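Troubleshooting: if your tokenizer reports a length mismatch, compare your output against this known-good record of 227 residues.
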Amino acid sequence: MNGNETDIAQRLMGLMFRAHPWHGVSIGDQAPEVVTAYIEIVPTDTVKYEVDKVSGFLKVDRPQRFSNFCPVYYGLVPQTFCGERVAAMFSARAKRHEIVGDGDPLDICVLTEKTIPHSDILLTALPIGGLSMLDGGEADDKIIAVMKEDALYGNYTDIADCPLNLIDRLQHYFLTYKHAPGATQHKVEITSVYGREEALKVIRASHADYRAKFPELESRCPKGMSA
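Known-good structure output:
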């Protein structure tokens, strides 16, 4: 099968079957400046959903603990993987050793004024920064982005444009969403908040980690983006 026939076959498969949100959806032709975001959780959810890595269906991970609600639209960036490159960037940023990637797609938090009633959707997002989060010794970066053309947040170009209390709410959520009453050890730590340029580097690194982890899916990845 030549290249043209392969492209036709892939397009037909896309029409006949639902795409896997992690592997079957493009990160975006303009990545890392503009990326696709697959939304797993909306702020009204009382259950934490996440993509089942095998089937691609959205599954219940666990009920949200206590009064914690995710304050933003939260999901993943397709065709990304938090592996060696992401871990190396985290280690250099935090000046820590023996950090590994968490082995998941790169997480993304999307700001928008619009009410989106349910998850399991795709939207176009513009990265403006991120949270350098360590979860059980694993790099678990949270990219912060705004929805493209959003009337309220769409003009934000860097994390410095965000109100401080919004960043505080995000940090509080991620620092507490796994904790039980009486817990004495906190396995989650946010070592820093970074801006747009670092976020773009993290996205590039995670896409490079993805291509190294899943070389058989190389033909589905946009060309021209390097770590």
